[in-house]
Hints:
The chain is of the alpha+beta class. Helix content is 29%, strand content 26%.
Amino acid sequence: MSTYRIEGGAPLRGSITASGAKNAATKQIVASLLTDEEVILHNVPRIGDVNITMDIVRSLGAKVEWSGDSTLHIQAATVGSGEVPVAFSGLNRIPVLLIGPLLHRYGTASVPLLGGDDIGARPLNFHVQTLQKLGATITFEPDCWRATASRLKGALIDLPYPSVGATESALLSSVLAEGTTVIQNAAVEPEIIDTILLLQKMGALIAVEVDRTIVVEGVRRLRGAEHRLLTDRIEVASFAAAAVATNGDVFIEGAEQGQIMAFLNALRRVGGEFEIRPDGIRFFRGNDLRSIALETDVHPGFATDWQQPFVVLLTQATGLSVIHETVFEQRFGYTGVLQEMGATIELYKTCLGGKTCRYRYGDHPHSCLVQGPTPLHGTTMQIPDLRAGFSYVIAALVGKGASSIDGAQYVERGYSHIPEKIEQLGGRCLVV
Length: 432
Ligand code: EPU
């Protein structure tokens, strides 16, 4: 258990380089199991979730090695087991994605129960229905799922909601299936498109059609490939929010405009500014910060993973901001700590926004009002989950005085070199 000691109150200034995307890296390590040839991934972030996923595929017989700081070589010449050890249960959301590849390579699959952040119920019914449609038989045991299939067969999969994970399950299971799979109402997050690019290099036939439809024509075999991961748009938005919240000026090398358009619009509406350069984006304040009404959504909407850093920024904006979280039902848990630090925040179970929302009639505090600006002061906090963790880091950087943030390993599951990047920007973050 490590702790960050952050001394707040100073603007972040300078430049950092964004890492590769967590939510593409882990999926592409899994995709590498679909071939017996070598897959080389560049721009892979050095984060906890990547380490866990590397250990999982190693346990199945794959060779996985780093070369340099961010290049990963993966080769699953043979897959020696279809069983992901139960020791990996509860760690992240990746094991379920292994079912399709393991069925193709080994014929049976057994994966432990999932972990990941406690941000809602996070059911897996879409994954199960997807695999069953493709012809897998799934049985549930107290500590794992077992799947069998002689050969997966293409099918029509109509997702009830554009789930990132279920879309990835469908893709990773259908690329080597017999026949054509049509995924309707698919998620089209940039990380998914990036994984499709890798699969295409490996020999897959995948078309991203209009209206969230993805068509996969199964092929008999996939080959090795080399691929550079896209930039982590969540890390970019997190440091951008930190720059503007602290009234700083930060250039993020590698930040890509096309992946964060909704974030840039919201940032500009609250008074933040940005300058798009060929090699990255510079973030700073253009005006006094003012409040906004915001609703999270699937891509290309305002991402749910940007919500937490943005709320910290809104504590520094003048007026009443309204945030409606429509993707996960329980993603405001972190606001209690912000209140202790001086923020004025209230949670509501009603939908404070006009978007269609699955939580309209539920009992979930999924809307939030933020009255700003409020000075924040340092405190001691315990990180509950990844994105909440980074919002605490930003709040500590904004706040006057020292903060102590316990449970740094939660935030390091998804962000690399946090203390180094903060120090590079003139902030004070010690690991104790
Ligand atoms: N859902 C179901 N049934 C399912 C699958 C999903 O009801 O079988 C619901 C979820 O409960 C949720 C919604 O669908 O309400 C969206 O979930 P989704 O499947 O899209 O999320 P995920 O695949 O579990 C990924 C990212 C999350 C990110 C979401 C949304 C990874 C490892 N995780 O989760 O990232 O917030 O998509 O974009 O890719 C993070 O990086 O900190 C993180 C939580």
